[in-house]
Specification:
Elements: E1 3-7, E2 10-13, E3 18-25, E4 32-39, E5 46-52, E6 56-59, E7 68-73, E8 78-83, E9 92-100, E10 113-114, E11 118-123
Length: about 120
Amino acid sequence: DVQFVESGGGLVQAGGSLRLHCAVSGFSFDDYAIGWFRQAPGKEREGISCISKSDGNLYYEDVEKGRFTMSSDNAKNTVYLQMNSLKPEDTAVYYCAADWGPLCPAAGVAWDQWGQGTQVTVSS
């Protein structure tokens, strides 16, 4: 079974940083693209970034680039999202997701598997 364990969310002041973790099991990073997404209350889901075998590291256009960095540790089957200079508008539930195949799908399509999400709250 595919399983995700997301962690690292919490409450942080504006300008602060958080590092989200997503430990996955049940599949190989070689076979799936792994992505980070977020969804704020009343807003549509936004794609942040994706790592896949063919695309490497890709950032979607939905989220301001430069403040968020996605990385992976294949030996630990874990992906990370380093978030710096956080703003109140970054407040959302952050999800990791996986989609079978060597390419990163478009952010708006239906990905195969989703984690439970971790809450990030940025206070002003």
